[in-house]
Amino acid sequence: MTIQWFPGHMAKARRQVTEKLKLIDIVFELVDARIPMSSRNPMIDEIVSSKPRIVLLNKADKADDAITKQWLEFFKEKGIHALAIDAQTGTGLKQITALSKVLLKEKFDKMAAKGIKPRAIRALIIGIPNVGKSTLINRLAKKNITKTADRPGVTTAQQWVKVGQELELLDTPGILWPKFEDQLVGFKLATTGAIKDAILNLQEVTVFALNFLKEHYPNRLIGRFHLDELPDEIVPLFDEIGKKRGCIMPGGYIDYDKTSELVLREIRADKLGRLSFETPKQFTEQ
Ligand code: GDP
User: Fold this and answer.
1) Does residue 123 sit in helix, strand or coil?
2) Does 132 carry a binding-site annotation?
């Protein structure tokens, strides 16, 4: 699914999220563990400021473990609660309920003191497209989607997904846009497969990816593409990979589009191992 974010759409998306926030106790903000900053909505802090929040670094199975640890530390230092998870296999999901209970203890204790009947914690999953929202909801739900629970004051029937006894989720996540006006952010989103290839120039995305790998993961590049050495310049690197993989056009020229497709496909399929495309250091230096 590609979503075109025109100003009208952005306003609508924001309105929808704001409406949903009224129904819940806590927000689970889903980001891509490989690019935790670039996969955030630029206005998220302001939009969800009224609710407690847990940042979930999803697809941690695809990210560089050492860098994910740095990100968890980074968020902790900023006073933001963050967990690394893999929504596809379910790794780390148990911590979500446990941490939610801690963060909402005071609110629920107060409700109990007022004689309000205990209920499950209500949560909303928010994130940019393709970050894994549906996967997470399905994984947590384990077929526990309830169709009945109309809440008073809500005109459209919201469906709640039960996660054990103590947590329930709105079944439709909040979808927000990424910070796509920033070109570097666009390249990172494209490299990790978060945005459709047709949106950006494939060769430009690959130039970004190869330069990044050259600087941060040179041995992975050399190993994967059986390079004798790592060329300093980007064009010879393209040429080397193209030659090794037979991306050649009639006349013996390197087919850069085909080479780009191949490189990006292999990065996204974790053929170069687990990769992270941004580090906290890059953001604290800015
Ligand atoms: P949504 O648009 O945010 O609802 O994203 P989806 O749930 O449709 O997920 C987008 C893609 O990411 C799908 O191909 C999922 O299988 C994949 N995905 C989601 N979570 C994970 C994860 O934790 N690990 C891996 N490896 N893939 C994931």
Assistant:
1) strand
2) yes
- CA–chain centroid gap for 192, Å, is 10
Residue 225 and residue 245 in contact, taking contact as beta carbons nearer than 8 Å: yes
- ipTM (interface predicted TM): 0.99
- Please give the single-letter amino acid code of residue 8: G
CATH number, domain 7-171, options 3.30.420.40, 3.40.50.300, 2.60.120.650, 3.30.450.40:
3.40.50.300
Name the band, by pLDDT with cuts 50, 70 and 90, for residue 149.
Answer: very low
Give the 3-state secondary structure of residue 130: coil
Q: Which atom number of ligand 1 is nearest to the Cα of residue 128? A: 3
Residue 174 annotated in ligand binding:
yes
Q: Where are the beta strands (DSSP E) in 121-197?
A: 121-127, 145-146, 160-163, 167-170, 174-175
Task: Please tell me the pTM assigned to this model.
Answer: 0.93
For residue 171 and ligand 1, the question of a CB distance below 6 A is answered with no
